Amino acid sequence: MTQTAQTHAFTPDQEGPLKDIKVVDMSRLVAGNMLSVFLADFGADVIKVERPEKGDDLRHWREGGQAVYWKVYGRNKRSLALDIKSEDGLTQLKKLIKCSHVLIENFVPGGLEKMGLSPNVLHALNPALVIARVSGWGQTGPYSHKPGFGTLVEAMSGYAYLNGFPDKPPALPPLAMADMIAGMYGAAGVLTALRSAEKTGVGQIVDLSLFEPIFSLISSEAAKFQATGTPTLRSGNQSAHTAPRNVYVCKDGKHIAMSGSMQSMAMRIFDTIGMPELKTDPRFENNDVRVQNKDLLDEIIQSFVSQRDQNDNLALFEKAGVTAGPVYSVADLIDHPYVTGREAIVHVPDADMGSVPMHNIIPRLSASPGLFRRPAPTLGEHTADILAELEHIQLAPESP
């Protein structure tokens, strides 16, 4: 692989728009790290409180011997190795919480309470604190006591039932989708709660389940079920709502994706494949009948696409203004002109790998963009510095 993208240097002294926000991240694995990396990318001082002997479990998800997930989602954070089961460690944690704005945790509901850190205790310590509580099923309800990994949520939410082909079993996503979506929702929730705390001086709990965010992506299915009385069946790469919409194999074995979700686009596709008569064919003249006859329509388009290599198909459809695009793997994307021109992937320095490609900071803010300030920390890398910063913090004596 030839790397054409320039390596971006880290700029630890630059400040982002969230520079005044201090975040205590006690979470592990994906959802909490997705939440906190968003805040860190825009300048928040995110302090990962980690177990001294092991650290965040995300450090141990390895590919090719490298902690690639930690390198990407641990960026812009600081690491504090702290034994919070010890009296001194808990005292230091309380000091940190007292001078922070946000606490993120993903224990099974009740975990904070068992540590003596219930929301009431935390808000007595820091009235404006925003507490983001990430769990599989939420802090309330009949499943609140259950542990919940994303896999279980992706299955129960209805997502897996919709995903895949009709002659195959339901398909789970090949990534931590539920966690990632929850993390993005969580960042929005935390920023909203911080805005409220700025106005009122009163913090609150952000109750973030993994289930509800991913369900929100398909929540129209509930209304559809009420209207039709039947759940949507798996349809592979087709759509239950528009046609044509599918992935088609080219002469060279590569694939393109195509969508004719607007009437004008479907008509344009018919012209481009040299079959304008389909525009007045009663089986294809409008979207409703095209959906009913989508298998036959896909056979017609597939026959056309299979006569040309991927590049030739793409050139033809692009010239005609047809919404078709290539199916790529990440190997195709690393040096792709769009990706390099947009800097959708950036390369940052790394002590182990030389440099690491990862997603750029999103979204892009024109006046106060996010920054690459520091690489993902080694376990406990900032412990001494953070503890020194806490020396002036005083805790009120606890009631007997």
- As a whole number of angstroms, the C-alpha radius of gyration is 25 Å
Mean pLDDT: 95
Quote the beta fraction. Answer: 5-15%
Helix content: 25-40%
Strand element count: 11
What's the helix-strand series?
EHEHEHEHHEHHHEHHEEHHHHEHHEEH
Low-pLDDT sequence parts: none
Distance separating the two termini: 65 Å
Find the structural class using helix and strand composition: alpha/beta
Overall, the morphology is elongated
The major pleated sheet works out as:
6 strands, parallel
Strand order in the sheet with the most strands: 3-2-1-4-5-6
Q: Determine the number of helices (DSSP H or I, runs of at least 4 residues).
A: 17
Annotate the secondary structure layout.
Elements: E1 22-25, H1 30-41, E2 45-50, H2 68-73, E3 77-81, H3 87-98, E4 102-105, H4 111-114, H5 119-125, E5 130-135, H6 150-156, H7 159-162, H8 177-200, E6 205-209, H9 211-217, H10 220-228, E7 245-249, E8 255-259, H11 263-272, H12 287-292, H13 294-305, H14 310-320, E9 324-326, H15 330-333, H16 337-342, E10 345-350, E11 354-359, H17 383-389
Parallel strand pairs: 1-2, 1-4, 2-3, 4-5, 5-6
Antiparallel strand pairs: 7-8, 8-9, 10-11
Helix pairs in contact: 1-8, 8-9
Architecture overview:
This protein has 400 residues and is α/β, with parallel strands linked by helices. Helix content is 37%, strand content 14%. The strands form three sheets. The protein has a six-stranded parallel β-sheet with strand order 3-2-1-4-5-6, sandwiched between helices. A three-stranded antiparallel β-sheet has the order 7-8-9, covered by helices on one side. α1 packs across α8 and α8 packs across α9. The longest helix is centred in the middle third of the chain and has 24 residues. The protein is elongated, with a radius of gyration of 25 Å. The model has no long low-confidence stretch (mean pLDDT 95).
